[in-house]
Each structure stands twice: as C-alpha cells, then as structure tokens.
Amino acid sequence: MSKIAFLFPGQGAQYVGMGKQLAASSPKAAELFQRAAEILGYDLAELCFNGPAARLDSTVFSQPALFVTSIAALESMREENPDALLSCEGTAGLSLGEYTAMVFAGVMQFEDALRVVQIRGAAMQEAADAVPSGMVSVLGLDRDQVSAICAEARENEILEIANLLCPGNIVVSGSNDACERVPAVAEKVGAMKVMPLAVAGAFHTQIMQPAVEKLTAALADVPMSAPRIPVVSNVDAVPHRDPEEIRQLLIQQVCSPVRWEDSMRYLLEAGFNEFFEIGAGRVLRGLMKRIDRKAEFHNITA
User: Fold this and answer.
1) Is the dihedral of CA 92, 93, 95, 98 positive or negative?
2) Measured distance CA(222)–CA(288) in Å, rounded
3) Residues 102-149: pLDDT tens digits?
4) What is the mean pLDDT of residues 183-201?
5) Cα–Cα 20 to 30 A to 163, which of 26, 107, 128, 139?
C-alpha cells in the first residue's frame, strides 16, 4: 500500500526555461504566472522561460520563481494525475520549498505566500550583501565531524552547519574568511570533496538575522490555517498543527539549519514510501536515494 508525500525544491534548483512547458500545456499554470506578475511587479514568466540566468539565479528573483513554478507544476498535476494529488498524505519543502508545501497543505493562500517569499528573498539578499559570506558543501563526513571542522575553522568568526541534506552531504555557512579555511581543515579530517557553493551569502546562519525582522513583519498579517495534511518543518523535522507555531517556525527557519535528512527519516518512519518531487530539478531525488534507496520516487518536472 502506497503512502504518498510531496516534496518541493529550494533555491539552487532553478534553471532558464523552467515552467515554459507547464505554461504552454496548462492554462491554469499559465494563469498562475500572470497572477504572479501582477503581485511581483515584473514579468516572472519571461524571466523563468528566457532568463538571463544571472538574474534568475539572484536570491531576489530565484525564490519567487521557484515557488511559482512548483505551484504551477501542482496545477498541471491536478489536471494530469489527480489521483496522486488527492491521495497525498504528507509534505515537506527544502528551505524556500517549505512555503510551497504550506500552500499545498492549505496553511497559506498562493497570493499571500508569494508576497512573503518576495520579501524573504529580498531581505536575505540584503543581509548577505551586508556581510561578505558564503556556503561550502562538505561530502563524506558525518555531522559530528563537520561540527568539529566548524569549531576549528571558525576562529572567532561565524561558521555554522546550515544544511543537513543526507548522509555524507552537509553544507556549512559563514563569513568568507571562515569558509575559505574549511577545505584545508575538512581534507585533514578525510572529507571526500569540499565545494564552495554559488550562493549570495551565508543562508541559515545568524548572518541572516537582519532578514528576520522583515520576515516577521511580512508574516504578521498573513492569515494561516491548520494544515490539512502534515507539513514537516525544516527547523525541527516534525510536523506542527498550530498556525501560530508554524508562523514562528517559518521565521526561525531563516537562521536555523535545514534538517532535511531528519525530515525525510520522519516521513519514512511514519510509513511514507512513495515520494513526488514537484518543480524544478532533481535535487531531492538524489538526496532521497542516499537516505533510502528503496523509496519509490517520481519527478513532476517544471
């Protein structure tokens, strides 16, 4: 017996051309891009379909773009595979993707969530611009080893675990100088690979604290309902029902590590055995294969 969960990608999954096929084949998906343009004040479809890549990759634009593209993929799925959509019993989203999961689960309305995502992206970009900072992927080590690397490479600067993605795939985040010290320390411990990531700054650390105030204000007046299905939180890897608790967790999420591996293990232990990655890219499929190779996985691509 299948127990289905929907998973939504986060920043980094974007690519020029995403959503183009969806909008061409689904009138409802095309309409979503039009509604998004009215809310955002620019032509999101043009940016997603034709780029340029440098603009689409910017945090300010990639967050709304990925959010809308995943919702458009859901609309397309509603037309083509309504049974899977109706039988979905749980959901989660990676960082930004958590907002898509919240809309799917009925916690927030599309328009409200898009406005918040636009403010979130701009506030995170601003916080990143204020402090030269970055993120580094460390492969082949466990979380205790990576914590020890952070402690050694930090040297009174900021360097923290930001993403716990799957076994042997952990991302650290911090000031540029601290990030530059990571490869030498990690290789000494036996890391398989250490790669700086092409991101604007140190997401999911205290460097993002200036974004919290703006995100708190943006979320303050947004009506929220209890989710109709469980949404596993990035912050503590369990679902929550109280809308006010969910609101606070979405605020905390910006400065907290993303516990993706723990979130997936929660779903697997709860009996979920069939997963749909909905939106751009196949990042979440790759992570799940490292967590549980036996899990059935489908991609509803953008």
Assistant:
1) negative
2) 32
3) 999 999 999 999 999 999 999 999 999 999 999 999 999 999 999 999
4) 96
5) 107
Q: Which residue type does 148 have?
A: A
Is 87 tagged catalytic? no
- Sequence-ordered list of residues with C-beta below 8 angstroms from that of 155, at least 6 positions apart, any chain: 177, 178, 181
Q: Is 204 a catalytic residue?
A: yes
**Among 70, 76, 95, 173, the one annotated catalytic:** 95
Domains of the chain: residue spans and CATH: 4-128+206-301 (3.40.366.10), 132-197 (3.30.70.250)
Catalytic residue of the set 26, 133, 204, 263: 204
DSSP state of 300: E
Q: How many residues does the chain have?
A: 302
Does pTM top 0.85 for this prediction? Answer: yes
How does DSSP classify residue 208? G
Tokens of 22: 């969806």
Question: Which amino acid is present at 33?
Answer: F
Q: What is the C-alpha to C-alpha distance for residues 82 and 225, in angstroms, rounded to an integer?
A: 23
